[in-house]
Amino acid sequence: MKNEGFTLRKRLRSFKFAGNGIRLLIAHEHNAWIHCFAAVCVTIAGCWLGLSTTEWIAVVFAIAMVLAAEAVNSSIEALADLVSPDYNEAIKRTKDLAAGAVLILAIGAAIVGLIIFVPKILAL
C-alpha cells in the first residue's frame, strides 16, 4: 500500500468508514445486540448506584473491549465465509478461536461487573 501522506480529509474519511463499521455491527450482528443491551443495563445501574470515576473507567473499558472483540470476530467470520464458503476445518478453528476471544472478554467484563456492583447492591 502506497503512503500518500497525511491529510485531514483522509483522516475524516477514515472516521466515516469506522462509523459505518460500528453501524454494521449494531445493525446486523445479533450477539452485538446482546452486548449493547447489557451495556445499557450496566450504564443505567451505574448511574443509579453512583459509580466512582475509577469504577466508570473499568466499566467503560470492559464494555468497549467486548464490543471491539465482537467487531473483530464478526469481521473474521465474514472474511472466512467469503474465502471458504464450504466447510473447512481451518476456517472452523479460526472462527471458534475468534468467538472464544469474545467469550473470554465477556466473562472478564462480567467479573468486573460483579466486583463493582455486588458490594453496592448488598449495601442497599
UniProtKB/TrEMBL annotation:
It comes from the Bacteria. It is a multi-pass membrane protein. Keywords: ATP-binding, Cell membrane, Kinase, Lipid biosynthesis, Lipid metabolism, Membrane, Nucleotide-binding, Phospholipid biosynthesis, Phospholipid metabolism, Transferase, Transmembrane, Transmembrane helix. The keyword Kinase applies. The keyword Transmembrane helix applies. It holds the Pfam family DAGK_prokar. It is found in: Cell membrane. One of its GO terms (molecular function) is kinase activity. The chain crosses the membrane at residues 32-51, 57-76, 97-118. Gene3D superfamilies: 1.10.287.3610. Belongs to the bacterial diacylglycerol kinase family. This is Diacylglycerol kinase family protein. It comes from Bacteroides mediterraneensis.
